[in-house]
Amino acid sequence: MTLAVYPTSALPVKTHFFEGLAALLDGRSVTWGFPGRTIPREWVMVGEITWNSADWAALGTRARDERYQISLLINFKIPGQTCRAVEESAFEVFTQIDEWLRANPFVLYGRSVTAQLQPERAASYAYQDGAECQIEAQILVSARL
């Protein structure tokens, strides 16, 4: 991946996560934004970026510390399955993503980027011919530019 220099690490970091998850979850749809409502579906979305802070680091370093989050949605809607089966499949992917984040530290512009997965919500819904599960989480990022 060739990285342009931006005034924030957010876009290169999001790109890193997107490409890493696409490789990790080979065969599943990993999208940059909302992919739509097709059925059946099994997708992971690397989505919105929200900054918590971007402050100058210690005097004289010309560095800036950023803290932000990147939304992560896992959505499975599978005909002929129960809520439990679909939710278990979605949590298997969630676990893979968490393990990948822990095992793959990231360096951007020669500086360390730390990230961790924070789960927020999981919900399952039965419908006439199957079930759907959506897991919502945040990738919490801390980076120095």
**Strand residue percentage:** over 45%
CATH architecture, please? 2-Layer Sandwich
Q: Termini, distance in Å?
A: 18 Å
SSE-based structural type: alpha+beta
Main β-sheet, in a few words?
6 strands, mixed
Q: How many domains, in number, for the residues?
A: 1
**What is the CATH topology classification name?**
STM4215-like
At the first level of CATH, the class is: Alpha Beta
- The average pLDDT value, as a whole number, equals 86
Q: Write the element-wise H/E pattern from the N-terminal end onward.
A: HEEEHEEE
Shape: elongated
> What order do the strands of the largest sheet run in, or round the barrel if closed?
1-2-3-6-5-4
The count of strands amounts to: 6
Q: Which segments are poorly predicted (pLDDT under 50) over 5 or more consecutive residues?
A: none
CA radius of gyration is 17 Å
Total DSSP helices: 2
Helix fraction by DSSP (H/I, runs of at least 4): 10-25%
Description:
The protein is α+β, with helices and mostly antiparallel strands and 145 residues long. The chain has a single domain, classed as 2-Layer Sandwich (STM4215-like). It is 25% helix and 48% strand. The longest helix is centred in the middle third of the chain and has 21 residues. It is elongated and about 60 Å long. The two termini are 18 Å apart.
Features:
145 residues; alpha+beta; STM4215-like; six-stranded mixed beta sheet
Summarize it.
This protein has two helices and six strands, in the order H-E-E-E-H-E-E-E. The chain has helices at residues 10-24, 83-103; strands at 29-31, 41-56, 64-79, 106-108, 111-127, 130-144.
